[in-house]
């Protein structure tokens, strides 16, 4: 019964959106803020020559924060949204998305100064990539920004989206 109660408490805390970020301060950050040029709602990654939207799709940059809740959508909806946004915005590849995982942190596993307001969306902080899993092409890779782990899911599943574009 004790294990069951612990599970219930964990589910309640996670579903409430409460984040308890933990970072290993004894290790060097993989995505230090100094790597990025921040310009309001955008972050240019000088290491990869990519510009990221600092807020998840569905949230809005206001007063130095991402306000609102990330919109969950299928991969085809995410691609259509990016296309309609214009300006070269797109859904990232798994390599690009994994490149902004902060490897010394969890819950969330992302630099929260650069990418604020990443939180549990019910089953983690799952974000689409466009990369198919080679061995199982019906599955597409995604990143869980709570744990920093990658996995795969079908295109119709609903997840969050962070847009990217090449260059400044």
Taking strands numbered 1, 2, ... along the chain, how are they ordered across the largest sheet? 2-3-4-11
Low-pLDDT sequence parts: 1-18
Fraction of residues in helices? 10-25%
**Range of strand content:** 25-35%
Structural class: alpha+beta
CATH class group: Alpha Beta
Average pLDDT value? 89
CATH topology, anyone? Mannose-Binding Protein A, Chain A
Oligomer: single chain
Q: Any guess at the CATH architecture?
A: Roll
Topology, number of strands:
11
Question: Termini, distance in Å?
Answer: 54 Å
Q: Please report the number of helical segments.
A: 3
Counting structural domains, the number is 1
Taken from the alpha-carbon principal axes, the silhouette is globular
Which radius of gyration do the C-alpha atoms yield? 16 Å
- Largest sheet data: 4 strands, antiparallel
Give a verbal description of the structure:
By secondary structure, the protein is of the alpha+beta class. The chain has one domain (2-166): Mannose-Binding Protein A, Chain A, CATH 3.10.100. It is 18% helix and 29% strand. The chain is built from three helices and eleven strands. The chain has helices spanning 2-15, 75-85, 94-98, and strands at residues 22-23, 36-39, 42-45, 50-53, 60-62, 65-67, 105-106, 126-133, 136-144, 149-154, 164-166.
């Amino acid at each position: 019964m004790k294990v069951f109660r612990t599970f219930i408490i964990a589910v309640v805390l996670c579903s409430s959106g409460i984040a308890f970020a933990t970072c290993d301060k004894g290790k060097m950050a993989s995505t230090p803020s100094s790597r990025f040029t921040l310009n309001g709602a955008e972050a240019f990654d000088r290491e990869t020559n990519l510009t990221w939207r600092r807020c998840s799709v569905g949230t809005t940059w206001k007063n130095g924060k991402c306000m609102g809740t990330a919109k969950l959508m299928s991969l085809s909806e995410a691609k259509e949204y990016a296309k309609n946004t214009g300006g070269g915005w797109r859904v990232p590849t798994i390599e690009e998305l994994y490149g902004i995982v902060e490897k010394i942190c969890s819950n969330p596993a992302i630099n929260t100064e650069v990418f604020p307001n990443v939180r549990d969306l019910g089953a983690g902080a799952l974000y689409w990539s466009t990369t198919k899993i080679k061995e199982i092409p019906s599955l597409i890779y995604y990143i869980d920004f709570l744990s920093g782990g990658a996995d795969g899911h079908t295109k119709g599943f609903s997840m969050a989206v962070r847009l990217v574009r090449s260059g400044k």
